[in-house]
Amino acid sequence: MEVIVLAAGKGTRMNSxxxxxxxxxxxxxxxxxxxxxxxxxxxxxxxVVYGHGGEQVRERxxxxxxxxxxxxxxxxxxxxxxxxxxxxxxxGQALVLYGDVPLIGxxxxxxxxEAAGTDRLxxxxxxxxxxxxxxxxxRDAAGQxxxxxxxxxxxxxxxxxxxxxTGILVAPLARLRDWLxxxxxxxxxxxxxxxxxxxxxxxxxVPVVAENPDTVAETLGVxxxxxxxxxERLHQxxxxxxxxxxxxxLIDPARIDVRGxxxxxxxxxxxxxxxxxxxxxxxxxxxxxxxxxxxxxRIGAGTRLAPFSHVEDTVMGEGCVIGPYAxxxxxxxxxxxxxxxxxxxxxxSKVASHSKAxxxxxxxxxxxxxxxxxxxxxxxxxxDGANKFRTIIEDDVFIGSDTQLVAPVRVGKGATLGAGTxxxxxxxxxxxxxxxxxxxxxxxxxxxxxxPK
Length: 453
Ligand code: UD1
Ligand code: CA
Prior knowledge:
The protein is α/β, with parallel strands linked by helices.
């Protein structure tokens, strides 16, 4: 089977510099959802029909299995499909999809393709309470589809029909070539309508069948930002339903956003307003507090993210306690039972098990051993303005509050650093190192007082 994706529309109503089919749904272009679905069906070839401003689309979505056909000017959906034909096999079936109908589902399309078989024309249709704007499916006395009439060409009586054309169809390629070459634009919009091929098929005795999608949402198109936002929520709700069906607890399935893939172990709990981006895997019993953002991360069993934590390109072990207000940046690897508290930032660092930084710290380019305690206000000074250096903190180190570790520097096993230390040389194992002026008290000192005027 071959797939044609229509994506030439200007998308004027998006009011955006970004072409319509590149507008993101769940964090990636609408068109990429359609291409992924097409690939899932085992399409032998995909041809995208692009138009005005389409170079950007081509560049973003280029792939070895995608051919590109330019439609310029845009003379209608029939004309658009015609531009794809030189890129496709002469025979076989072609499935027509739309770059701005991103939620179309693989199961629905499989049924449509099956209904089409090798030689039938199969249409995807839906019944709408308000069919305004859509092409209407007209049937004969026996209930067989006879043709499609567009809203603007329809009579009063035809507009009463509530069964509408979604635009998605499967047609035999050899016939399609012939039909499209014979289209006329003698209609209310002066366009070459793809929908006119249905009447042609019927008159030539090619069987026409209609199928319905699993859900109407799958067939909704996007013309403006409001519709895009509507589809985003519908899509997110479907993801939320899948997560819950697999056992995840979502405190409010209307308040989660998955922009990528989210895998959950058993008994995962996710509080409201969390965003998951890229590839995220949560182990058994992981709990994510409200308002967390997690991007490309693997989080071990039983780990807890308290609210407002931000996790990016991070691997966490089991039983960690993170946040609230913690931030792990790319290259963070936490072993088991690591605690990061409020306003702690970790970047490109490995932290071994049972180590803690509970308040206000920056740990960057560091290797932290086991059972290390990093006091409040501790900072690794990893950057001299030109180059970055590593800090090594061995097992069982205790770092007093408000310490600066000026890298490259090593703190030996079991060492203690006194509060306020600026460590610029290695600290030996097992000893107290402190760099701080001795405390003195000045006897008899008095606060200045205001001079009388
Ligand atoms: C089309 C159908 C209508 C159906 C409706 C569903 C036709 C003639 N009508 O109407 O029966 O109910 O979709 O939404 O097909 N496009 C191109 N090149 C063109 C024209 C359109 O690539 O020259 C693409 C658009 O980008 C869009 C899609 O085709 O993705 C549909 O085009 P649009 O003009 O919105 O068709 P409708 O008038 O809504
Ligand atoms: Ca339209």
